[in-house]
Amino acid sequence: MDTPPPDVRADRADRADDVLALARLATRRGAVREMLGWLARRAGGPAVLVGEAGRVLAGPGGEHDPVVARRAAEAAADAAVELHRRGAASAVLGGGEGPPVHLIALDTGPRTYLAVVGPDDPHCGVLLADAARTLALCWRLEQSERARRRIESAEEHSREAVLHLLMVGSVPAAQRIAGALRPALPTVVQMYVIECPHARRREIARRIDREAEGGAWIVPCPVRPNHLLALVPPEPGPATGPGSGSGSGVPRGARFRDSLDQLIVRLAPECRVGVSTPVALRDTPTAYEQAIHALAVARNAREHRAGFGGAVDVTALAGPEGYVWAGELLAPCLRYAPARRADPGPQELLGTLGSWLSFGGAASRHLKIHRNTLAARMRHLDELLGVEVSRSLAAQSAAWLALRLHTAPQAAAARAQTPPGHTATLDAVLGTPAAGTWARAQLHPLERGGPTSGLETVRIWLRADARLPAAAAALGISLPGARKRLTRAEDILGRSLLNAPSAKYELWLAMRALGAL
Fold it and tell me: What pTM does this model have?
């Protein structure tokens, strides 16, 4: 066999080195940009990927002269359009007044071209042919990864939309969307709120989904970046675990799905889990609040998990008088007619009010509006309702109760049976025997808490409009000291006070009902 001349052997060695270099670059993160950068240095001219319509799809990594890069991209785009028009797989176009452009079609769909503008290497054609094979594979992988992320993002937004529909009471619409996404929403659910590191949210969500065998409806919380929400069918059987007995710091009667919540904290010990009681699907907002209250206990619990103790719902105690009062309080907003079609109407304003009472400034993320838009809507609500809802805890508590009563199923019938001209007051609503029973049940745990975490601490905090600095000053203690006292009160109550949604409105109403404020 004839031995190739030295120059041929050298070319083969260089080509082998080039193929090996491309293979190494293909294993790196951002392989396409890395390979284009290497190709530009190796060939002596800018290298880009261009679509059949002339759009530059990818350029090289590293530092480049922006003017040179722009001109090279324009030349490559024009050449790619011309090559596609000719239907050729590769060519050298340009020259004359402009630099030559070497192009080769990648084995992808839609058609994508690798272009090197004005190369110095005389073997550019062979170099591009070798690079095109590896580059096509890396480009397809990157495109697949982008498509996967888009699908994942679309599913997350769809699931978030389902949760939002459930939270605003649009159960049939939520069920229709959920039926297409799977799993179908159960008719009775428990809400899990899982507090976890933001960076691990997706990983933990996948674990929960796997352990729940696809039966959990899992949604990254749109308001808090370190929360996961899971709607899970309640597990039959007696309650077990830390919440079922006394002496655990968790209210008696709390329930757990041991097969899931214990697994969550075992698989991810940094997680804290709050679990609601089983509720009908239409009561998902109630389940969310319960789970948030349970999470406040779970943060300090040895087991890192807690179930909700099951307080009496205030809407069950209101009676006809309460429905009339709620309608009167919200009437200015309900009768409001926006001056412009684009302005929020009554239902949107009431939705904003409910979200703000639950989440405060974070309501802008819940409602997907700018924080300035939220502030403007709250100022508008202050004017409509004639009270400073945005500043006064008394006004916030009244508005919170009015929204609960206004949306109750029996509210419309109660208002229809009310004699014309009849008016109601908040004191009349809270002055009934049933309201007194409810209020004493709310405050009873605090009466055993002692002076540093009991009734007086919470009363002073509420008198300060639930503002921690003012409460600390009134108590004559430091800000961390006041926070520590209220954290102990959270453990005693089994309710969230310092983090929204907070039980502060219910506690204010209970103290008002008993004349303690």
Answer: 0.71
